[in-house]
Amino acid sequence: MALLVSSWSNGVQSIPKDYIMPPERRSGDFVSVCDEIPVIDLQENPKIDRSDIIQQILKACQEFGLFQVINHGVSEKMMEDMRVLYHEFFNMPVDDKLGVYSEIWRNTGCSLYTSGFTYAEEDVHYWKDTLKHVCHPLEEHTPSWPEKPARYREEVGRYAVEVRKMGFKILDLIGEGLGLSEGYFKGVSQDQAMTINHYPPCPNPSLAMGFFGHTDPNLITFLQQDQYGLQMCKDGKWMGIDPIPNAFVVNIGYQLEIISNGKLKSAEHRAVTNSTAARTSIGTFFGPNPSLPVVIEPAKELVTSTSPQMFKSYQYTDFLVDFLAYHRKPFPRSGTPLDPYRL
Ligand SMILES: O=C(O)CCC(=O)C(=O)O
Ligand SMILES: [Fe+2]
User: Fold this and answer.
1) Please, which domain of life does this record's source organism belong to (predicted)?
2) Which residues surround ligand 2, an ion (CB under 5 A)?
3) CATH for the 31-341 domain, from 3.30.470.10, 2.40.50.140, 2.60.120.330, 3.40.50.10320
4) Among the residues of the chain, which ranges form H helices?
């Protein structure tokens, strides 16, 4: 427990040696907020055609693999309640978090851990603590969630239901745009999990990293952020993502790139820290159920003579094992976790 950054970093003047990234793994000083990252308004509006919105989303997924949505249907009050709740959660006394603490990242159930996937194996640590749990079906999973703050299960449960509605609405728009049959994504998005990353103020943000560069292994992710800190990489260049109040950042994960037969790009992203304020990102991840045998492959509709199959067919559980193994390899790493799946 003493390992949690939020439990020891308050008031420290400099970062411990084992949090100082080697220069090539730091974020560098010249990343600025990019105003080209698409912001898509999902408000139903008689002047905007559904097909226009679909085209905007597809274009964003092809060019950036990431976009923001506003007027998405999840109430601002609920989003604000989440920010307040998680602020309280990460500021609770250490003993109140014991029930969910775990030394390492776990794929199932609920865990609160620090740094990357496996703290004990890392040469350098990341300036973050993470709470992760599964959200669907609710009744099955809420008993594993934190008991404190007392309203946790009720409020987060309501939020998970609303985010699920928004998620499927956006997945339906993507499916329609790709020409897939209605409800195509249902079978590969049965898992809904939340990952809440908390980055306490860091005395030396330029020497430390919050979250290493990665691409989400699941289908699609919806993230709300309360401060600047998220960056994405496009064509080898890192760019900052504007923390638009009450927007969701939507990013494409590896499974959607594969199912779309490469028509949609997944987005590599990372998070930096800052010295003045704690930052908390609240992410919801949709993807195949990691506890069931689910076969993933490019959608048959998207494999044609002019667009040959780009990726193998495989079990999602195998992909997750390879993804983790990749992220446990020492630096420098070559390739990406997607490479072994290309044809
Ligand atoms: O904290 C952030 O903004 C990034 C979080 C993230 O990429 C993740 O949880 O996968
Ligand atoms: Fe991520």
Assistant:
1) Eukaryota
2) 216
3) 2.60.120.330
4) 5-8, 50-63, 76-90, 94-97, 138-141, 152-178, 254-259, 316-328
